[in-house]
Design goal:
Layout: H1 2-19, H2 27-50, H3 69-94, E1 97-99, H4 105-138, H5 143-158, H6 166-189, H7 193-208, E2 213-215, H8 221-224, H9 233-253, H10 258-266
Length: 267
């Protein structure tokens, strides 16, 4: 874990220093983008080079079967769509959100179609980092501590604002809650597939929604949120509901198998 964190920070710093002079973005936005690249490189170094293990050991194991990854992935995708539908449906019904397509149709379709593989890749990578490597390593000390620290790291890395404001605090809280729900998905299944599905849909929605909807009254942001989707009370309720659905579904399908996962992780 120490080598992964050191590698992540070092590569992120180097990439940020190299990229910052060539862009007008703030250092925080540049750093956030560089962290994603550094995480991929550090993850590869940690798993393949330093440990000599496979991705199966971190939650990408069994695919088929009644409790396998294929079914978990489908449920995660459906759960993400349901959460988005709840947030946007209530927003539209209340008049807080309205449909408003961007006039730039080229950008619209490029994003709608082109971001699908990006969302899939990002969700796999980030789940391997935060719920695959970080959460599972910290669980050796304490599961609640592991969930809290991994979710806090996830929230900080994804925080868009570089200054602490009311919106930034709401966004941070929503991202932390999302991290907890994704951690719960792993803890209940001992696989990453459910979390990957949920993560991919929400990442896609957070990127595309700003091109198809508009928030009518910014003063209601505390309630309905913004295009970030996680910074309003309605979003928090949807995420809490998603966590409840994870508990219900895994209990109903009987997919939880902690003993098997822990023994696999030790190998």
């Amino acid at each position: 874990m120490g080598r992964f964190v050191l590698s992540l920070l070092l590569i992120s710093a180097i990439l940020t220093l190299l990229a910052a002079p060539w862009t007008s973005l703030s250092w925080w936005k540049v750093f956030r983008r560089c962290v994603s690249i550094a995480a991929a490189l550090s993850l590869w170094l940690c798993i393949r080079r330093w440990e000599g293990r496979s991705l199966r050991a971190y939650g990408l194991g069994a695919w088929a079967g009644s409790g396998g990854g294929k079914r978990q992935l489908r449920f995660g995708l459906g759960l993400g769509l349901a959460a988005l539908g709840m947030m946007l449906g209530i927003g539209v019904a209340s008049g807080a959100v309205r449909f408003e397509l961007t006039p730039d149709r080229v950008r619209l379709w490029r994003t709608v179609l082109g971001f699908v593989p990006v969302a899939a890749l990002v969700s796999v990578l980030e789940e391997l980092v935060f719920r695959g490597l970080l959460l599972q390593r910290l669980m050796a000390c304490s599961t609640p501590l592991a969930v809290g620290l991994s979710s806090a790291c996830y929230a900080l890395v994804h925080l868009k604002e570089s200054t602490f404001t009311a919106q930034a605090s709401r966004e941070l809280g929503g991202l932390f809650l999302l991290g907890v729900v994704l951690s719960l998905s792993y803890l209940r299944t001992r696989q990453l597939y459910l979390a990957i599905g949920l993560h991919a849909v929400l990442a896609y929605g957070a990127r595309v929604n700003k091109l198809v909807i508009a928030f009518a009254d910014p003063s209601n942001a505390w309630l309905v949120g913004t295009s970030r989707l996680v910074d309003g009370v309605l979003a928090w309720a949807a995420l809490a509901g998603a966590g409840g659905c994870v508990l219900w579904w895994t209990r109903r399908m009987g997919v939880t198998n902690p003993g098997r996962a822990l023994s696999s992780a030790r190998r």
